[in-house]
Fold this protein.
Amino acid sequence: MARETRDIAYPIAFTGFILLVMTILVIDPDRMNGLTLAKYFWFYSTLLLTGVITFGLAFYSMSVASIDITKSIMIGILTVVIIDISRYSNMEMMNAKIFLLVIISFFFFDTFFHHYKKATKVFQFVLIAFALLEVIWGYCQLYAYIPDMQKDFTLSGSLPHTNSYAMFLAITLPIALYWTITLFQKLKYGYSRLLTEADEEHVRLEIVDDILLFLLSALGLIGILSILPFTGIPSAWFIAGCSGLFVLYFKLNLHSFIKASILRSHKRTAISGITLLLVIGLLTTGFYRLRKDEINEHLLTWKISLQVLKEKPITGVGIGNFRKAFGDAQTIYFEQGEPTEQEVALAGNPNCPVNDFIQLATGTGIIGILLFIGLIVSVLFSGFRNMDKHPEKLAITGALIAFILAGFINSPIQSLSLSILLVLLISLGTSDIQPARKRIPKVIPIMTSLLLIGITTTIVYPQFTMFKAYKQWAHGRLYYKMKIYATAAKIYAPLTNTLRHPYFFMEYGYALSQTGQHEESIAILQRVAQILPDPQIYNRIGKSYQALGEYQLAEQYFQKAHHMVPNLVYPNFLLAQLYLEMGLRDKTLECARQILTLKPKKESEETLHIKAQMEQLIQRLD
């Protein structure tokens, strides 16, 4: 590539990929059920742009293309996801197709960093800058400086949930920590150079650049540390602490200090080691006692997820289908198994995310999870192997370790913003690899980029045609929220052939039932039940059957909602009302007494009111 062409191409390419990463910051003040549509449509647009840029780089570059183990594994994951799309389809927004687009973005990032290696360092500071912006955004939310954009009073920055916000900051912390220490050490050395070297002007300009970058890193680090406690997410504190200690261990050369201490005094080292183990044991025990219910709930989800994995261990249930399979497995477990009282009390809504490794294992099967683990291992190995020649890999490796810990505790991949962050970290972690790669003809990357652009366009173009439908949904929701269900249902009706989002169908089905169109409501909500496991859906279907006089079917759906999350009071309340309407006195009393003994995960005014009604009902029937 000629120098003139390169001077023009670099700013264009850099801007395109910055815009892609800026998906993290995009927000729509009119969020619908926690879904920021603007973020997705921004991602679609910028991904197409970066695809065109990638094709241009592949076509005009004179460098020889190559392939390594990370790319090979990514191609394998790409193949698994495409096969999943051909086998399954669902109506979720963050489904297999979105997952496929995120994987494709890796190849675009990889091509860009292959041609512009210096950009890898720049993008680390871009992430720090984004983290600092999120911190400022968070403080504005805390102190209500942006009231128009803060309608739900949560600390979430530009991300849809507080948990995603806390995870983003925790994952970015090791990068900010590394560069704060590195630039501080470099500045100390720079001032000594300024006193000794003749070219003072060059050194002075370099020092000014380092000071600005140091201020950015230090402010980012201080901001993350200061706002993380306000998120109220202990797992994010744990992840930030572990990844920060990892960076400090290698950056401050603590392993050499520990090695020297061992050589000096074995007795002192033994005592220190035992003390450290005791401290870790006490901290672990204390943390378990403080978060006992939360930890046991996670263990319960793992237990039920293993049942899902046993059904299709090789191929999995399909990406995006895990929650439905998990909901069915949890229903069967509480209906036919032998759950303990603790498990009944801790059972959660299957619609809530569990950790990424479980979702990938059950979604893609053993093949998919082995590919994913192989990808993580290869990237971490690359980071450790190249740390001597490229010290900045320590920051990326620390961030990847933070992401892995987050994946074990929660599900960061479910967030589009965090998925893009993971792909960017993998691309940064595998750039500048020195060992020889397998050389391939130049025509292959050109054809590959065209193929990826074709896949991206095939997925993205229909989404743009749905934008008007989403706007109409937003318009209909105004009436839905005001409980003007007839008007809402009228607006929703023409959208059923276009939209595929489950929450749209939930709202439409509920609006139909509220206007007396129970048969149509049942048909719509049964479609949603095939995708989204939620006891609320079964409750609504049961109420429609009850209104139609189909008492046995109503009973089945109320019981299904009860068995799915047995600590919920409302399904049993509906059962008691149904039995009362059917004239079944004994069953009504049994159900009412069961409600009084139930211990919901969180007491609310609604549950207390229901229990008071049941006490009155028992007194009246006795």
